Amino acid sequence: MERTYVMIKPDVTTRQDADNAIADIKEMILNLGLQITADKMFDLSKEVLAEHYAHIVSKPFYPEIEEFMTSGPVVGMIVEGKNAVEKMGMLRGPTDPAGWGTDTIRAKYGKDIGTNAIHSSDSIENAEIEIVRFFAEDVV
Protein backbone atom coordinates (compact mmCIF):
# COMPACT_ATOMS: atom_id res chain seq x y z
CA MET A 1 0.00 0.00 0.00
CA GLU A 2 1.51 3.32 -1.09
CA ARG A 3 0.79 6.73 0.43
CA THR A 4 0.91 10.15 -1.16
CA TYR A 5 0.16 13.71 -0.14
CA VAL A 6 -2.46 15.75 -1.99
CA MET A 7 -3.28 19.41 -1.46
CA ILE A 8 -6.27 21.24 -2.94
CA LYS A 9 -5.16 24.84 -3.44
CA PRO A 10 -6.89 28.16 -2.65
CA ASP A 11 -8.19 28.69 -6.19
CA VAL A 12 -10.54 25.77 -5.47
CA THR A 13 -11.19 26.33 -1.75
CA THR A 14 -12.22 29.97 -2.24
CA ARG A 15 -14.60 29.35 -5.15
CA GLN A 16 -18.25 30.16 -4.66
CA ASP A 17 -18.96 26.44 -5.10
CA ALA A 18 -15.95 25.29 -3.08
CA ASP A 19 -17.77 22.55 -1.17
CA ASN A 20 -19.00 20.98 -4.40
CA ALA A 21 -15.60 21.31 -6.10
CA ILE A 22 -13.77 19.75 -3.14
CA ALA A 23 -16.29 16.90 -2.99
CA ASP A 24 -15.91 16.36 -6.75
CA ILE A 25 -12.11 16.18 -6.49
CA LYS A 26 -12.37 13.69 -3.62
CA GLU A 27 -14.78 11.60 -5.69
CA MET A 28 -12.34 11.65 -8.63
CA ILE A 29 -9.64 10.32 -6.28
CA LEU A 30 -11.89 7.58 -4.89
CA ASN A 31 -12.91 6.58 -8.42
CA LEU A 32 -9.27 5.64 -9.06
CA GLY A 33 -9.58 2.99 -6.37
CA LEU A 34 -7.60 5.08 -3.89
CA GLN A 35 -8.58 5.85 -0.30
CA ILE A 36 -8.44 9.18 1.50
CA THR A 37 -7.22 8.18 4.95
CA ALA A 38 -6.85 11.69 6.37
CA ASP A 39 -7.93 15.15 5.32
CA LYS A 40 -8.10 18.59 6.86
CA MET A 41 -8.60 22.20 5.82
CA PHE A 42 -6.00 24.66 7.09
CA ASP A 43 -4.17 27.89 6.32
CA LEU A 44 -0.54 27.66 5.23
CA SER A 45 2.00 29.73 7.12
CA LYS A 46 4.69 31.48 5.10
CA GLU A 47 7.30 29.42 6.98
CA VAL A 48 5.79 26.05 6.09
CA LEU A 49 5.16 27.21 2.55
CA ALA A 50 8.82 28.24 2.18
CA GLU A 51 9.85 24.80 3.43
CA HIS A 52 7.48 23.08 1.00
CA TYR A 53 8.71 25.18 -1.93
CA ALA A 54 12.37 25.32 -0.82
CA HIS A 55 13.45 24.32 -4.34
CA ILE A 56 11.98 27.54 -5.81
CA VAL A 57 11.92 29.98 -2.89
CA SER A 58 14.79 32.00 -4.39
CA LYS A 59 13.12 32.29 -7.83
CA PRO A 60 11.74 35.69 -8.86
CA PHE A 61 8.22 34.26 -9.23
CA TYR A 62 8.10 32.83 -5.69
CA PRO A 63 6.42 35.90 -4.11
CA GLU A 64 3.44 35.36 -6.44
CA ILE A 65 3.22 31.71 -5.36
CA GLU A 66 3.42 32.72 -1.72
CA GLU A 67 0.68 35.32 -2.15
CA PHE A 68 -1.56 32.82 -3.95
CA MET A 69 -0.98 29.91 -1.56
CA THR A 70 -1.68 32.07 1.50
CA SER A 71 -4.77 33.72 -0.04
CA GLY A 72 -7.13 31.12 1.40
CA PRO A 73 -7.24 27.71 3.05
CA VAL A 74 -5.98 24.50 1.49
CA VAL A 75 -7.24 20.96 1.94
CA GLY A 76 -4.48 18.51 2.73
CA MET A 77 -5.08 14.79 2.27
CA ILE A 78 -3.25 11.54 2.75
CA VAL A 79 -4.22 9.26 -0.11
CA GLU A 80 -3.42 5.55 -0.09
CA GLY A 81 -3.59 2.72 -2.57
CA LYS A 82 -1.70 0.75 -5.15
CA ASN A 83 0.53 3.11 -7.20
CA ALA A 84 -0.98 6.11 -5.39
CA VAL A 85 1.78 8.55 -6.41
CA GLU A 86 1.57 7.62 -10.09
CA LYS A 87 -2.23 7.51 -10.18
CA MET A 88 -2.51 10.90 -8.48
CA GLY A 89 0.07 12.37 -10.86
CA MET A 90 -2.00 11.29 -13.84
CA LEU A 91 -5.24 12.54 -12.27
CA ARG A 92 -3.60 15.82 -11.22
CA GLY A 93 -2.11 16.58 -14.63
CA PRO A 94 1.21 18.28 -15.40
CA THR A 95 2.11 21.82 -14.30
CA ASP A 96 2.01 23.13 -17.87
CA PRO A 97 -1.60 23.81 -18.94
CA ALA A 98 -0.76 22.62 -22.46
CA GLY A 99 -0.64 19.06 -21.09
CA TRP A 100 -3.71 19.13 -18.90
CA GLY A 101 -5.85 17.14 -21.33
CA THR A 102 -9.51 16.84 -20.43
CA ASP A 103 -9.65 14.23 -17.68
CA THR A 104 -7.41 15.85 -15.06
CA ILE A 105 -8.22 17.86 -11.96
CA ARG A 106 -6.19 20.74 -13.36
CA ALA A 107 -8.14 20.69 -16.63
CA LYS A 108 -11.40 20.86 -14.70
CA TYR A 109 -10.45 23.33 -11.96
CA GLY A 110 -7.12 24.96 -12.84
CA LYS A 111 -6.83 28.37 -14.42
CA ASP A 112 -3.18 28.66 -15.48
CA ILE A 113 0.32 27.51 -14.60
CA GLY A 114 0.25 29.42 -11.29
CA THR A 115 -3.30 28.75 -10.15
CA ASN A 116 -3.58 25.09 -11.00
CA ALA A 117 -5.98 23.72 -8.37
CA ILE A 118 -3.98 20.89 -6.83
CA HIS A 119 -0.63 19.55 -5.70
CA SER A 120 0.33 15.94 -5.28
CA SER A 121 3.66 14.40 -4.34
CA ASP A 122 5.95 13.50 -7.22
CA SER A 123 7.63 10.51 -5.52
CA ILE A 124 7.14 8.09 -2.65
CA GLU A 125 10.02 9.75 -0.80
CA ASN A 126 8.57 13.25 -1.18
CA ALA A 127 5.13 11.94 -0.22
CA GLU A 128 6.44 10.77 3.15
CA ILE A 129 8.25 14.09 3.73
CA GLU A 130 5.13 16.07 2.83
CA ILE A 131 2.85 13.88 4.95
CA VAL A 132 5.05 14.55 7.97
CA ARG A 133 5.26 18.26 7.09
CA PHE A 134 1.51 18.76 6.88
CA PHE A 135 0.18 16.03 9.20
CA ALA A 136 2.94 15.77 11.84
CA GLU A 137 0.53 16.09 14.75
CA ASP A 138 -1.97 13.72 13.13
CA VAL A 139 0.23 10.91 11.77
CA VAL A 140 2.02 8.28 13.79
Strand content: 15-25%
Q: Helical segment tally?
A: 7
Low-confidence stretches: none
Mean pLDDT: 94
Radius of gyration, in angstroms, nearest whole number: 14 Å
Strand order of the largest sheet: 2-3-1-4
Structural class: alpha+beta
**The biggest beta sheet, please?**
4 strands, antiparallel
Helix and strand succession?
Answer: EHHEHHEHHEH
**Given the C-alpha coordinates, what overall shape results?**
globular
Considering DSSP H and I runs of 4 or more, what fraction of the residues is helical?
40-55%
Beginning-to-end CA distance, first to last residue: 16 Å
Number of strands: 4
Give a brief rundown of this model.
This protein is of the alpha+beta class and 140 residues long.
Outline the fold blueprint.
Layout: E1 2-8, H1 10-13, H2 18-30, E2 35-42, H3 46-52, H4 62-69, E3 74-81, H5 84-92, H6 105-109, E4 118-120, H7 124-135
Antiparallel strand pairs: 1-3, 1-4, 2-3
Report on this model:
By secondary structure, the protein is an alpha+beta fold. It is 41% helix and 19% strand. It has helices spanning 10-13, 18-30, 46-52, 62-69, 84-92, 105-109, 124-135, and strands spanning 2-8, 35-42, 74-81, 118-120. It has a four-stranded antiparallel beta sheet. The chain is globular and about 40 Å long. The relative contact order is 0.26. The mean pLDDT is 94.
Which descriptors apply to this entry?
alpha+beta; 4-stranded antiparallel sheet; 140 residues
